[in-house]
Design a protein that fits this description.
mainly beta; three-stranded antiparallel β-sheet; globular
């Protein structure tokens, strides 16, 4: 990133270290906490970014995929430790949702968490639809 860029490079990965990635995002992260069944079960805290700001550094071969319901969301997880560090979300299928809990904390200056209410999915999706477009 350049000196005048609004983004920093955040690094992260799965628990065992097999999957590693970088994401360009603000140092002050505005994250989403979804109350759907899979996000509640996994404790996923969403940072949605365009594909162009996400880079998989290691672990492509370690990744496994899970799809359910509409099949649009592509839930990637490490086949060794089982951690879902990022995935392609149904709400923004042209981007990635990174699990903020899988980021190294050194580059995060502030974390704000907003609720994504899956019980009113249509309205919640409308509010975040453009996140993967920058």
């Amino acid at each position: 990133m350049t000196a005048d860029s609004p983004f920093v490079v955040h690094r992260g990965g799965c628990h065992c270290g097999a999957v590693r990635f970088e994401v360009d995002a603000p140092a002050a992260i505005d994250a989403l906490e979804c109350n759907c069944s899979i996000c509640r079960a996994t404790g996923f805290l969403h940072l949605i970014v365009p594909r162009s700001r996400f880079r998989l550094l290691a672990g492509k071969g370690a990744l496994r995929e899970y799809r359910f319901n509409t099949g649009v969301a592509r839930h990637s997880f490490c086949g060794t430790c089982g951690v879902k560090a990022f995935y392609v979300p149904r709400s923004n299928p042209d981007g990635y949702s990174v699990n903020v809990r899988c980021l190294e904390p050194a580059t995060i200056t502030l974390l704000t968490v907003r609720v994504f209410d899956d019980t009113d999915r249509e309205a919640s999706e409308a509010r975040i639809r453009g996140l993967s477009r920058g």
